[in-house]
Amino acid sequence: MPRRSRSGSSASAKSDSSSSSASSSDESSAAGSSSSSSSSSRSRSRSRTPPPKTLHVGNLTPHVTKEHLMEIFGEYGKVKKVDRPMAKGTEGHSAKEYALVEFERGEDADNAIAHMANGWIDGKIITCEHVLKPGEVKPEPQREQPGRADKARIERERERDRMERERQRDRDRVRARERDREREREREREREREREKRMRE
């Protein structure tokens, strides 16, 4: 009889331990599901955050107008507006070195940055980055390897930049020749004035 009693108590202990482990397993699975649901809700809240739509375009020359920027950036999406501040003391005749370009969609702003950051406008390399407004989050940089189409686009952009640099060098050479010719004409006029002066004497 005592031996049977010990056996019964042992079976009871085993039953209690199995029920305890089952309850702890249920609690851990519930905690895991709660944590996954909270993380998924956080990811959903992050995905609802609107992407930035406004770009700061820097290192512009004074010759670049709002119309130029509307045309250039309009290739990458619908531009809502362009703010081109004017420099102080110039009475509206000289623009500052930057502009704010606002798109209708944040995706178009991202597309413009992908194409225009460190690009060329009017012979200068420009900067192009997001301007964050309240409630907007700067998108994380894409880490994907470029595909065949992306590589072809990058090559086209490099070729376009190279051609733009060559055109700029050509324009610089033309301006240098014009300055040399103007200096030569000025020297010729100076020599002519000297001859006339000697003749009058």
Q: Helix and strand layout, with pairings?
A:
Layout: H1 2-47, E1 54-58, H2 66-73, E2 79-83, E3 98-103, H3 106-116, E4 120-121, E5 124-125, E6 127-131, H4 148-200
Antiparallel strand pairs: 1-3, 1-6, 2-3, 4-5
Task: Report on the architecture of this protein.
The protein is elongated and about 85 Å long. It is an alpha+beta fold and 201 residues long. Helices cover 59% and strands 12% of the residues. It contains four helices and six strands; from the N terminus they run αβαββαβββα. The strands form two sheets. The protein has a four-stranded antiparallel β-sheet, with helices on one face. The protein has helices spanning 2-47, 66-73, 106-116, 148-200; strands at 54-58, 79-83, 98-103, 120-121, 124-125, 127-131. The model is unreliable at 1-15 and 17-22 (pLDDT under 50). The termini are far apart. The longest helix has 53 residues, at 148-200.
Helix content range: 55-70%
- Series of secondary-structure elements, N-terminal to C-terminal: HEHEEHEEEH
- Please list the strands of the largest sheet in the order they lie side by side: 2-3-1-6
Q: Give Rg in angstroms.
A: 36 Å
Number of helices: 4
Query: Uncertain spans, ≥5 residues at pLDDT below 50?
Result: 1-15, 17-22
Helix and strand composition category:
alpha+beta
Query: How many individual β-strands?
Result: 6
Global shape: elongated
Mean of pLDDT: 75
* End-to-end C-alpha gap: 152 Å
Main sheet attributes: strand count, strand direction, barrel closure: 4 strands, antiparallel
Give the strand content. Answer: 5-15%
